[in-house]
UniProtKB/TrEMBL annotation:
This is Oxidoreductase, short chain dehydrogenase/reduct ase family. It holds the Pfam family adh_short. GO terms for molecular function: oxidoreductase activity, acting on the CH-OH group of donors, NAD or NADP as acceptor. Belongs to the short-chain dehydrogenases/reductases (SDR) family. It comes from Formosa agariphila (strain DSM 15362 / KCTC 12365 / LMG 23005 / KMM 3901 / M-2Alg 35-1).
């Protein structure tokens, strides 16, 4: 059996964790990444009845730690076939003039530079094997800027630009690259964005938000297409959401 190996960043929560569960159902071998080791251990325990799981605990902001973690993969997990660049978050929702520069640094460092570091560490072996599939989790915020979204939207616009650049540069090497761009998904995203402020509990109220499992199923669909099919860019909203600012609530 030709078992594929997937590395998922941000596998401790939300979309990344659901994707790990979805891939395990299909017996894809998993390398699960995140900063919270206790959570990595819980996900590993839940999934290793279905597939082989290895965990890597590191912060994608730390270039050296990222390289070291990926270079430390044991032989049986070292040839990554599928990379899901998912780790990321919004930090704050403020008019530009009131923005906290720590929040700006976090979003640029995690959502943009972290994605670059992880990809830089993984792509040499994909290029050597002339095969691989990279999926970057962008956002509807990468297609449309919304009020107070300024730097988060910029970070996700950057993810889309990087995706296009990667697809061009990986093209001679037979590597697929694409982006999946969700609208509102009910995860810990808003808890992180609003730093424990109760407003986070209202974001997904009054309409049927996307669930992380919805995105995980779409990611599995994308990675299970035949080799000649590359879903390059996909935007998915909950039905109640028309764009970044229009959401039909009860
Ligand atoms: P969650 O907060 O539920 O999950 C975020 C994940 O990213 C966690 O597993 C977290 O792991 C990881 N992460 C965050 N910072 C770092 C870091 N510095 N180093 C390593 N890992 C990190 O949010 P979502 O599942 O919603 O978000 C996943 C992706 O989806 C993000 O890129 C987000 O921008 C995007 N997205 C989300 C949408 C939504 O509405 N929820 C919509 C569109 C896109 P840990 O804390 O353990 O490190
Ligand atoms: C997450 C979607 O609209 O909360 O990227 O920014 S949104």
């Amino acid at each position: 059996m030709n078992t594929k190996i997937a590395l998922i960043t941000g596998a401790t929560s939300g979309i990344g964790r659901s994707t790990a569960h979805e891939f395990a159902k299909h017996h894809i071998k998993l390398v699960l990444c995140g900063r919270r080791k206790d959570r990595l251990d819980i996900v590993k325990k839940a999934l290793e009845k279905d597939t082989d799981v290895h965990t890597l605990c590191f912060d994608v902001r730390n270039k050296q730690a990222t390289m070291d973690a990926i270079n430390s993969l044991p032989e049986e997990f070292s040839n990554i076939d599928i990379l899901i660049n998912n780790a990321g978050n919004a930090h704050g929702l403020d008019p530009f003039q009131d923005g906290d520069t720590e929040d700006w640094d976090a979003m640029i460092d995690i959502n943009v530079k972290g994605l670059l570091y992880v990809s830089k560490a993984i792509t040499p072996k994909m290029i050597a094997r002339k095969s691989g599939h990279i999926i970057n989790i962008g956002s509807s915020a990468g297609k449309e800027v919304y009020p107070k979204g300024n730097v988060y939207c910029a970070s996700k616009h950057a993810v889309l630009a990087i995706t296009e650049g990667m697809r061009i540069d990986m093209n001679p090497h037979g590597i697929k690259v694409g982006a999946i761009n969700p609208g509102l998904v009910e995860t810990e995203f808003s808890q992180v964005r609003f730093k424990g402020d109760p407003i986070a509990n209202t974001v997904y109220k009054g309409f049927n938000a996307l669930q992380p499992e919805d995105i995980a199923e779409i990611i599995y669909f994308v990675i299970s297409r035949p080799y000649h099919v590359n879903i390059a860019d996909l935007l998915v909203f909950p039905t109640a959401q028309a764009n970044s600012t229009i959401v039909k609530k009860d």
